[in-house]
Amino acid sequence: MSAPFARLPRWADYGLIPVINLIVAFLVAGIVVLLVGENPIDAAGILVKGAFGSGQNIAYTLYYATSFIFTGLAVAVAFHCGLFNIGGEGQAYIAGLGVAVVCLTFDGVLPWWLTFPLAIAAAAAVGAAWAFIPAYLQARRGSHIVITTIMFNFIAASAMVYLLVGPLKPAGSMAPQTRDFLAGAQLPKLGWVLEAMGMSVRSAPLNISFLLALLMAWAVWLLIWRTKLGYEMRTFGFSPKAARYAGISDVRMIIIGMLISGGLAGMMALNPIMGDQHHMTLDFVAGAGFVGIAVALMGRSHPAGIVPAAVLFGVLYQGGAELAFEMPNISRDMIVIIQGLVILFAGALEHMFRPYVQTVFASLSPRTMGVPAPKGEGA
Amino acid sequence: MAFVDALAQLIDATIRVSVPLLLACLAGLYSERSGIFDIGLEGKMLAGAFAGASAAAVSGSAWVGLGMAILIAVCLALVHGFASITHRGNQIVSGVAINFIAAGSTIILGQAWFSQGGRTPPLSGPARFEAITLPGADALRDVPVIGLIYSELISGHSILVYVAFLMVPLTWWVLFRTRFGLRLRAVGENPAAVDTAGISVTWLRYRAVILTGVLTGVAGAYLSIAQNAGFVKDMTAGKGFIALAALIFAKWKPVPAMFACLLFGFLDAASIRFQGMAWPVIGKVPVQLVNALPFILTIILLAGFIGKAIPPRAGGVPYVKER
Amino acid sequence: MAEAAIQLIGINKSFGPVRANRDINLEVERGTIHGIIGENGAGKSTLMSILYGFYQADSGEVRVGGKPIAINTPNDAIAVGIGMVHQHFMLVENFTVIENVILGAEGEALLKSSISKARSELQRLEREYGLEVDPDAVIEELPVGLQQRVEILKALYRGADILILDEPTGVLTPAEADHLFRILKMLKDQGKTVVLITHKLREIMAITDTVSVMRQGTMVATRKTSETTVEELAELMVGRRVLLRVEKGEPRPADVKLSVSNLTVRDSRGVVMVDDVSLDVHAGEIVGIAGVAGNGQSELLEAIAGTRNAEAGTVMLDGRPVDVTGHVDPGELRDRGLAHVPEDRHHVGLVLAFEEAENSILGYHDKPQYLRGPFLNIEAIHADARDKIAKYDIRPASDRLKTANFSGGNQQKIVLAREMEQDPTVLLVGQPTRGVDVGAIEFIHKRLIAMRDAGKAVLLVSVELDEIRSLSDRILVMFAGRIVGERGPDASEGELGLLMAGVEQREAAE
User: What residue range is the signal peptide (chain B) (predicted)?
Assistant: First the structure.
């Protein structure tokens, strides 16, 4: 039996265990809060209020979630291909270049609804291009993609620093960023939806790239579970030998999988650049690429899990900002710890609580557990 | 003589910046040779640096700082071991997690404890590892060449620098001349062979990750209480990943690891030394390019254009007894 | 009666819901060769792994030399003088022989003295048992037979008095196997106790003093080898009389559908695995390839199927060439009527994490009937899967169940249903009944004959000589990458055995 574990009901597998892992991650985070001399329960209250307390807070929460949906989907698509793309951060960063070039070129010429599709294409194309090199090296030369994508994050960071303090900086400016975009490269906000529900949003940056993110979540679901390509990707991800047998090219899968992954990561750049800041600054990705790893692990690489996981991290980012304001000892770096803990408990230790859950299920209802592995007629 | 002095300064700087790379690289070597991939070197080094500086600041003793740096780094290494050995989790995921936990908690705890924006209080006197002047260094200073090499390059470093370079032959000896080394290499290649020979794979691998923790702790302590006088946030700045690159570059061997770290250290030192300088023919080299060079070189190596880097065969794969 | 070296009393072991060993009792006499025979999956290896401390029994007692002993780790087993030679060698491939021998038995913290001690000890063992091997050779450069010898040396170096060998001849040529048996006899003469696990009746009869038979996790009988027969053991093994011959009519071979000429294949290390092989398969016949595992049959099959590149040679499929040396796409070969039941269904023929229905289209997933544009036609795929489940009696009859949860025989039926129902011209079949329960074997054999009678060209590779002999219309024997002979279905086991050992070839060369 290759699976050492007895079967659990689907809802326990996809719902209960991730929730338990998450709770443990938060309990450990609570200990850190205690260590810095604050009350974890109060902190949690402030966090939730900070994330949902007002229309503006909700809009911020969803703004952050937008970025994490893109990067979470990026990591998940690669996972389905059996690849670990740690390079989402770098792919999103470099993709900002594509967005910026489109915006700087067309912001005075085209309306936003024409600039936007061009920018989407540019973001996806540049993100995909940055993912292509590690993909090619993995597919053709056998270089370990985890290592190459890590290295590419650093190379991307160096390249962007070079460009933003040099060629992309407007003459006479001191700040390492591009010039501000004109109206033709500013995405419409979505705050009016919340305002229509009677909430005050003010200038919160939630914008239509949130809708693009949801669309992409649906598209990824369609791709992975409903298309021939998705079937081929999953086959390759589970068993490269079976893929070869089935006539599925490994080179094609690695490269297509990474192109899609890099493209999704790249689209993340739209949200802060066109949706919020209206220029490209140093380090605008701000770790969203890495958050994508936590989001994909928590969401079990399924869009239906990734979207709520991304919103949860949106809550942490937005609520965390409020928390830092109320409790000076807790800065937003608290989120980085929680992110690490979520990756640890939902990822590396995902099976830790499984045997206990199984024991509980076995004692509750022996029938769901006691099903012997079906045997052939001889047994 | 200006050129010689400049060269001496450059080599001296190379040694200083190579040391944390070398310690972290050797740290990774133990873990990866045992079959446990570790991309969490960065996090462990960072946590070690913070713990070391904090303990040194509070106790006033560099040695207490070093001890605390090692203790905390070992704790994180044990978390990695718990996830990847005991629970057979994904080693990459676990390493990523540790990097984040370290990055976040060093800042949070630093701010909460010292209220200096994530810095620890500046260290001085016995709270730091000062440079040691080797016997006879001053006397030999004026002897041409040898005197310069001895007094400027070999003498005048903190004790941790000597520890780092002594670790190279020591690691080689442990790996290839001791029972522990034989078993360590075996478990990274074929853990089933080790298991059936009556040796505990789990305990062997735990010992390897503990050693990784010890060395990353020393690397962190070097950063915050020897090279610098205190902890500043994110002070490892990717050194753990450069060390990882060096480990691959060195094909998981101790002596080549030292040369890889010196090479990458030299690039770093040179990029600072020659920043903005125009070179003949190629002109100005952007400092960012030089910073990215270790990563670019490693990718070229990984791509097999300059030899092939083959990791330990069982690396990254949790050990499960076959039925 | 002589003293018992090992006694196992009431051993039970379960893996999840599977009971691998039930109430096993076994007594092995000192200074004898004791065979344990049973089909794949009968629980032999599990029992021996318990004895070696690799697994812990759920209940039961182990006695060594009459004393009850708790064996919790291999170390405990080694301490009481038990050594084991595993089916898959437990060697560190890039270590030298001597490093492998001392691993775990170094004695001291420093290697220098343990190595020199081991060197003289190896010389002694070489003298005493004729176990020659270069102590400084690197394992991955040694032939399989010598690697196995290193495993035996490892056990003896640790002072083993009781040596367990798990399916030791699976990877050996008959000549190497004979050499191994001579070594085992010599060990017995020196007073060692040998436990030989195998599923090959011939080996039991040739070398053991006593034989115990296991079936489905239970110990069904123990006999003196001199007082039993192959027929009796075979019946004990499978529980009823084995149907050695499948009922089949005369073949009606027609046109050549698969033609292989001068095919040469190297493996990833550059070793020639298939050496200038030519063969034809006609419509309406089964051509069987016999041979000891590892003589190139697997590589031959994979090269024809397009899952491995060939170095030279040509393959004609239904009269048209296949680009076996360049870019072959197994998917394209399927479109041209080549179906392939691969040897390794767990990693190649199936994706165990997939639902049954998803596996029922593997390789055929780009056929128009399963697609709507770029999308999968989910309804059609599931309807099709349910049809096949009914037709091939796949149990449990669920197209939504994860494939890993089916038994070996039912997994194999999923593969067969998929490949046979596409109405291929040529069918390649590798080890069709490996790890498959007896009932399913009969079903699979009948299906293969039905394919032949339906005019398909069938190429069968199997290491089970009985299977080859009962199914094939022509038998080709492979040895060291070459086809060394062709025989009819009525060729005797002995004749084929000599060919498989390469004997004839060697004589011809002299």
Answer: none
Tally the domains of chain B. 1
Domain CATH code at residue C269: 3.40.50.300
- So what's the pLDDT on residue C239? 65
Q: Inform me whether the pLDDT recorded for B64 exceeds 60.
A: yes
Question: In this structure, are C144 and C202 located in the same domain?
Answer: yes
- Say if B23 falls within a structural domain: yes
Q: Is A159 within the bounds of a domain?
A: yes
Phi, psi of B94, deg, nearest 5: -60, -40
pLDDT exceeds 90 at position A41: yes
Report which of residues A347 and C235 the model is more confident about: A347
Do C227 and C426 contact (CB within 8 A), yes or no? no
Sign for the CA dihedral angle at C403, C408, C412, C413 comes to negative
Q: Is residue A111 part of a domain?
A: yes
β-sheet with C162-166: strand ranges across: C82-85, C162-166, C193-198, C33-37, C210-215, C218-224
B194 in Cβ contact with B186 (< 8 Å): yes
What total of structural domains would you count in chain A?
A: 1
C186 and C62 in a common domain: yes
Residue A376 lies in a domain: no
Q: Which residue has the higher pLDDT, B65 or C326?
A: B65
User: Is there a single domain that holds both residue C227 and residue C290?
Assistant: no
Q: Given CB atoms, is B233 within the 8 Å cutoff of chain C? A: no
Structure ipTM? 0.90
Question: What is the arithmetic mean of pLDDT over B218-242?
Answer: 93
Q: A146 vs B39: CB contact, 8 Å cut-off?
A: yes
CB–CB contact A374 C396 (8 Å): yes
* A24 domain-assigned: no
Query: B 23-42 residues with CB below 8 A of C?
Result: none
The beta strands (E) that lie in C204-329 are given as: 210-215, 218-224, 256-266, 272-282, 285-290, 312-317, 320-322
Same-domain pairing of C73 and C191: yes
Check residue A375 and give its pLDDT: 33
Judged by CB atoms closer than 8 Å, whether chains meet at A159 and B288 is answered as yes
Q: What is the CATH number of the domain that holds A211?
A: 1.10.3470
Q: Report the candidate in B215, B286, B287, B221 with the shortest Cα–Cα distance to residue B257.
A: B215
Distance (Å, whole) CA B265 – CA B15: 7
The whole domain housing B59 covers 2-302
Task: Flag whether pLDDT at A5 surpasses 60.
Answer: no
- What's the mean pLDDT in A322-342? 86
